[in-house]
Amino acid sequence: MSPPPVWTLLVKHDSTSRQFFPKNTLTYKSSNGKLMMDLDQDYAKFRAASDGRMKLKLVYPEFWNQQKFPKAKGHTDLVWKQSSSPLDSTVQGYKIAFDKQHDFDGNDDFKGLCRSSASSSTLLDGQPEHGYWFYAVGAYHSWNGADKFPGPRGSQKVDYYAGGQAQVTNGAVGATSED
Q1: Looking at the 3D structure of the chain, how many domains does it have?
Q2: Domain residues for 76?
Q3: What global pTM score does this model have?
Q4: Using a CB cutoff of 8 Å and minimum separation of 24, what contacts does 110-116 make?
Q5: pLDDT in tens, 79-117
C-alpha cells in the first residue's frame, strides 16, 4: 500500500472578506488568515524523478454544493501534472487523467497553471492561451461580484497545492514527488 499524498499549500484565497492579493508579490499573508501566498519556491523539489513533472492541485471547497455548482458533480479537487513552473509564462508538459474531474464549467478549458496573460487581474490562471483569467490564483480584484474571482466561475475560495507522496527515509517521514 502506498503512503498518503503530502501536499504543500502554496496559495489560499478566501474572498468572502472582500480581500484580494497585492500586485507584484510572491509571498503574502493577511492578518485574518484569508489570504496566504508562498510562491517563492524551489519547484524542483516537487518534480517526480520518473517524468520530471510536478503534481499540482486546486481545491474549490464550495464546489461540494451540487445545487450551486452542478457541473462540478460534488468534486472539489482539480489534480494534474505539468513540467513547467507555475511562474513561467507558458505551460509545458500538461497531463491530466482523461477520467478525472478537470472541467467544472462544461467547456473542457483548464490547461495547466502559469502566469496570467490577464496580468492586471491575477498572478496565475489556468487558461494560458487567451486573455481571460478563469481558474485564477492570486486575484488582484473581484470579478462578477464584490467578493468573487473567476476560478473557474464566480468562486470565493481556492487553495493551491504542490505535492507528492510521503516516504520513509532513514526513519524520517519526508515528501517526494513520486507517484
Answers
A1: 1
A2: 5-176
A3: 0.83
A4: 110/78, 110/80, 110/135, 110/152, 112/80, 112/82, 112/84, 113/56, 113/58, 113/82, 113/86, 113/137, 113/160, 114/84, 114/86, 114/87, 114/88, 114/89, 114/90, 115/86, 115/87, 115/88, 115/89
A5: 899 999 999 999 999 988 765 655 555 556 788 999 998
